[in-house]
Design a protein that fits this description.
The protein is α+β, with helices and mostly antiparallel strands. 31% of the residues lie in helices and 19% in strands. The chain is globular, with a radius of gyration of 20 Å.
Amino acid sequence: MGVIINFSMLRFSLLFLVFVAGAAGQNGRMDGGGERAHIAVPMTGAGTYEDPRRPAFVREAGIPYRYQVSDDGTMALVEVTPRTPGELDKFEKRLAAEPRAKVFKPGRDKKADMLVEFRKWKKDYDPEELAKPGVRVGVDGAK
């Protein structure tokens, strides 16, 4: 008695497993090595294909991020997930040159203080909205 292998069913099963494994990795979170920090930075860019609107400094830093735009369109309210704590410290030093930039680090700053500040720019700001589909996301310098 032999075993009959249906290769098309085997191929389908393997493709299905690859799809499920890939979908499981797309859970809407960006788990890096560091803790999530929240920053407010100005928006930059002309809004063209060559120069899209985006948060200043963040994309060039190569840190995974998500953001919402302020009510007046001038600021980006960003959640960054650095891969290492040192990456956030280095990024924070770069932001020191921008007077409008604000950084809220876990363990140093209170979430309530961040919410008060961010709601000055976006009255209904909710950090949980960042995990929902449709939020602008960038990782490693790509949008």
